[in-house]
Amino acid sequence: MKEITFTINGLQVKANEGDTILGTALKHDVYIPHLCYHPDLKPLGGCRVCVVEIEGMGLTLSCKVLVEEGMRVITESPELSKARQISAEFIVVNHYAECLSCARNTDCRLQDMMNYLGLKEERLQSLKRINREHPIDESNPFFYRDPNKCVLCGICVRTCEEINGVASLDFTFRGFATKFSEMKDKPVTEPTCESCGECMERCPTGALARKGNERPVREVKTVCPYCGTGCGIYLGVKGNRIISARGDRQSSVNKGQLCVKGRFGHNFVNHPDRLTTPLIKRNGTFVEASWDEALDLVAAKFEEAQEKYGPEALGGLSSARVANEDNYLFQKLLRSLGTNSIDCCARL
Ligand code: FES
Question: How far lies 57's CA from each of 15, 19, 23, 60, in Å?
Answer without folding.
Answer: 20, 18, 19, 8
